[in-house]
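Exercise 7. Predict the joint structure of the components listed below.
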Amino acid sequence: MTWTQAAFGRITLGLTALGLVILLALGVGLVWLVQETRSYASAVVATQQIRVTAGEVLSSLQDAETGQRGFLLTDDPSYLAPYIAARAQLPQELDRLAAQVTADGGQLPPQIELRGTIEAKLAELQQSLELAEAGDREAALAVVRGGRGQILMDQVRNQIAGVEQRTAIRQQQRSANLEGAGQLLMYGAILGLLLIALVSFGTLRAARSYTRDLEAAQAALQRANSSLEQRVATRTGSLMAANEEIQRFAYIVSHDLRAPLVNVMGFTQELETAIVAVRGLMERAEAEAPALVTQDVREAVREDIPEAIGFIRSSTNRMDRLIGAILALSREGRRRLVAEPVPLQPLLEGLSNSLQHQLDAAGAELRLQPPFPTLQTDRLALEQILGNLLDNAVKYLDPARPGRIMVRARRESGLHALDVVDNGRGIAERDHARVFELFRRSGPQDKPGEGIGLAHVRALARRMGGDIRLASRLGEGSVFTLLLPDALPAPDTDMANAPQLEDQPA
Amino acid sequence: MNVSAQAVTIVMIEDDDGHARLIEKNLKRAGVYNDVLHLNSGTAAVNHLFGPQRQGGAPVLVLLDLNLPDMSGIDILARLKADAELRLAPVIVLTTTDDDREIRRCYELGCSVYITKPVNYETFAQAVRQLGLFLAVIQVPPTAP
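Solution:
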């Protein structure tokens, strides 16, 4: 399973929220149970009180009966004291009992009934006492003997027992309720804990799965990175190898081309020497036996052979120069560039001084427009590039107007841009790319050159981590812009290894 | 002309027959009339210099081209300098290669002179003639053990 970060967040949040809700419910249930237990405890107290009060009521009634009996037996009014006290207390006690029972959730009617029975009993007592006080002891005793008081007393006892019993039942009910609630809460708690455990497990699993996914993604990224690095390294390596191969190729080819060229030139020379002898012979023949020398022979010795030799020579000389150029370029490509701080101002001044003679001859002016930066680069390469550009600028000025050459430095997209600006004859648009190619030139071929300079300049500029650009209009002038980084690109590839020529066929 | 130089045989190891011929001609023009023995491959050179039929005693000067089709001239140079008899013979490397490392290696191995064949024939001829003048005056020890 793959987790997106958002999905993971939602799921973890949901599970955590669920866990919190369950915890909250458990807490509420617990608070409720505590409350219930508390009310149960107070209910227990209330039950006790009801019992006590009921006992008091019965005891008061018995006191009243005892007082009555005592008085009836002794006719001594002092025995009436409990009766009088009980009569005074009983209404209060009954009120208290009623209040307690209703407060405990009991029914009011039995209370009223109890009160009624007690009042009847008291009335019976009252009646017998009143008869006794009136002196009719027999009638009073008859009331007692009549057994109604006994029956009422039993009824009161029963009713009080009923009150107590009902209270006990209520108490039992409450106890059972509490127990049920406790059990319910316990089951709830167990369920809640299980759910929390489940939720925690789920969250943990989600987190672990998410972490695993993250780790896997990270590992995949790392693999991709390292394989990318490897690919880049491989490509760079093969590019470097290819570059080296080309350098070697150019070097070997140009070297091996030289050997037959020496022969061509050498034997041409021999031929030239030989023709002198032949010409001497022909001249002697012309003088001594003119008939022997035909027009054909004369033309061959005097014109055709020297002309052929001349063409062979000029061609081999040209080929020699081209080979030399390739050799120079390939050698330059194999030279290791060494970075050093190169302040441009003095370098340009030096170049300007060495060009002064040509500038004077052309009636031209070279202006350096400071400020110039200091570059961390290969001095010789930079000197060659700028020397070449300035050389070209002077070489291809327009004779129709005074030559103006200007050099300035600026920054362009993080690189140093050096502009060599001239008002020379310019380069046609279609030749802008060609001029940087080897052996290609532009415009009238009225100046010496092999078409190597700019190819060399571009190769060097690129090796130095930069490039060269041309903006020009035919007949108006040119701007060559050399772009260079602040410093040479890190380790120059090892082009300094000379080709192992002894392994090559000569 | 130096008397002892007269007896010196110039062993020219050069695969390019044209070059060999031009060198020979120009040496003659410079007045060097020593015997020139042209060997046009590394194998021929090794057979002649180190083979069973080699004749000891006669002083030898070796003109060596490095770019041979069958072996490197540098190997021949190394063998010459390691040879008890031939190690005193002057070796003149005359080759198209002008690589700095190659030049240094040849001198390290003990070559006497390293000359780059000039591509321009005029210069080439001139160089060979000057070499001829040089050969005419130098002393070469006999190769006897």
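Discussion. Residues 121-137 of chain B form the longest helix (17 residues).
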